Amino acid sequence: MNCELDTFRSNTGTLEERIQRATGLNGTGDLIAQMKSREQNRATDLLLESPCNERCVACFFQEAGGPGSIRLTTEVVNDIRTTAGILGAPDKTMFTLYPKEITTAMPLLPVFSERAVTRTLTNGKRLGEPGVIETLKNAGIRDLMVTVPGNAASYALYTQEKEQTYDRLLNNIGSAIRSGLTVSTFYPVFRPNIDDVLETTLRLQELGVREIKFIRVIPAGAARNLSDDIFTDNDSTLQFLSNVNEARKQAGNTMELTLFGGSFGPNFFAKSIYRYLAGASDRWPGSQYYCPMVNGQFIGIAFGTGKGYPCFKALAFPELISGEYKNGKLTREPVTLTDKNLENGLRGQCAKDNCDYQPLCMGGCRITAFAFAKRRGEPDPLYAGQDVCITRLLEENQ
Questions:
Q1: Beta bridge pairs of residue 212
Q2: Which InterPro entries match (predicted)?
Q3: What is the pLDDT of residues 52-107, one digit of tens each?
Q4: Where do the domains of the chain lie, and which CATH numbers do they carry?
Q5: Residue 37 has pLDDT above 90, yes or no
Q6: pTM of the predicted model, to two decimals?
Q7: What are phi and psi of 122, to 5 degrees?
């Protein structure tokens, strides 16, 4: 496949040259030493099963044995306020509140204000209703992340809404931007929408959207019910990257188009990955390794059950429970997914004999590899190799 991917190759040369150019460090040894010297930062999310007015086919907010949704009574909101105060105590490195959908959870806004939360996620469906945008702004919200999964047909497939509601979504985004809010978008990537990238980018650019974050749909949460041909593989990922490459060129410097969450693997032909590993970037959550599941540097607490998970996409996998919040106390399970265990236990293209980047990468996003390996019925899926890796694709498609 002949694909233009030059915007993904902003940092070329030998590995040592790329590290030095991005960080000023003298190669792999210095970067690893820098990584290991950094403080073991931890991030905590409080995942709130608020009601949602959509039924997205890839919703990750599907906790096994969870309540589905919670009623936001005064008592429940006060309990959330107390829990947030404990989990978000000053000694925590990073704490975030994540409702499933903020516009159907307006009683939570006073808690957001108290904790100075200025950014939240929404599907955008209710933003056009009278008073919704102003209520969000009055609570201190300044930035919205809205999910826009491609064009009208892909939107309908992903959200199970009617295609006719797509234009209303775009109008709502435009209204939010004109009101003074900053809007970025999430673009869940699955095979049916990989060729919507350019069209969607240009439409969002016209509205004033500043950033699109592309996140790969993986078989976690509701997406476990999707057929295999929905998920991207190497060939479709290559086509998707080519489409992003073209969209970046046409959008110019007015928009930032990024791959989010490591679900396509790390790009070791960019500068940002090395800067992050060296501690020179404040990208979430500041963990030592590329994936904060490694060494237990993240925990997401599902409010309805109090169970803790090592990734926000792990809620449907009870075997991954990594802790529990109960009676005002957070307890953590012993961490087994350590850098030492991964070094020798990773399989496939992530095994140390198969990847020169393994000491830096440690197998990339572990929940992505886990979800696909579990779907394939592999034993010990936490140590599975990635099925797709952007660095490998860039190496193979010079």
A1: 185, 257
A2: Aldolase_TIM, Radical_SAM_PqqE_MftC-like, rSAM_sf
A3: 999 999 999 999 999 889 999 999 999 999 999 999 876 555 889 999 999 999 99
A4: 43-274 (3.20.20.70)
A5: no
A6: 0.95
A7: -155, 150
Smallest CA-to-CA distance from 206 within 171, 179, 155 is with 171
Residue type, position 283, single letter? R
pLDDT greater than 90 at residue 393: yes
Tell me whether strands 43-48 and 211-216 are parallel, antiparallel or unpaired.
unpaired
Contact (CB, 8 A) for 8 and 243: no
Is the pLDDT assigned to residue 336 strictly greater than 60?
yes
Helix axes 197-207, 234-251, angle to 10 degrees: 30
pLDDT digits (tens, 9 = 90+) for 157-192: 999 999 999 999 999 999 999 999 999 999 999 999
